[in-house]
Amino acid sequence: MGETREDEVNSKGMGVGIAIGAALGVGIGVAMDDLAVGVAIGMGTGVAIGAGLSRR
């Protein structure tokens, strides 16, 4: 059971990180006039944030 709970925390942290990254990415994309590049940067950032949140 301990593993399941840890997995839930990890997936939640990753989901939150990716959501933050996607929002950042749209903002970056609009600022750069290139939505695809902005979202790509944002998703990379989101995965990094998610990994950090998952480790807590």
TrEMBL record:
Q: Which organism is it from?
A: Haloferax namakaokahaiae
Name of protein? Glycine zipper-like domain-containing protein
Membrane-spanning intervals of the chain: 12-29, 35-53
- Give one Pfam family, short name only: Gly_zipper
Q: What is the lineage of its organism?
A: Archaea, Methanobacteriati, Methanobacteriota, Stenosarchaea group, Halobacteria
Q: Tell me where in this chain the Glycine zipper-like domain is found.
A: 9-56
Give the keywords, sorted.
Membrane, Transmembrane, Transmembrane helix
